[in-house]
Design goal:
Elements: H1 22-30, E1 42-46, E2 49-53, H2 59-77
Antiparallel strand pairs: 1-2
Length: 78
């Protein structure tokens, strides 16, 4: 930008964009994401997006979806 360039840095992790194995490795990586699902919490995955859903009618429902969110956070941190 404005004639300035970033310096090159070696990338030591990940999969190069456009690689043949990229999509397969990504699917293997997120395959167990449903394992952290809480009872009654809907997990929907599409491409690189994950959504959790639940009809919340009580404090127990609210606690269930919060627990599912916490579980997914734990999964992401691992």
């Amino acid at each position: 930008m404005n004639g300035k360039f970033s310096s090159w840095e070696e990338v030591l992790s990940g999969v190069p964009q456009g690689s043949v194995l990229g999509p397969l490795l990504f699917l293997l990586f997120i395959n167990n994401l449903d394992a952290v699902e809480e009872s009654g919490v809907l997990v929907k995955k599409f491409a690189n997006d994950t959504k959790l859903g639940k009809v919340v009618k009580s404090d127990q429902d609210r606690a269930a979806i919060q627990k599912a969110l916490d579980s997914h956070l734990g999964w992401a941190l691992k």
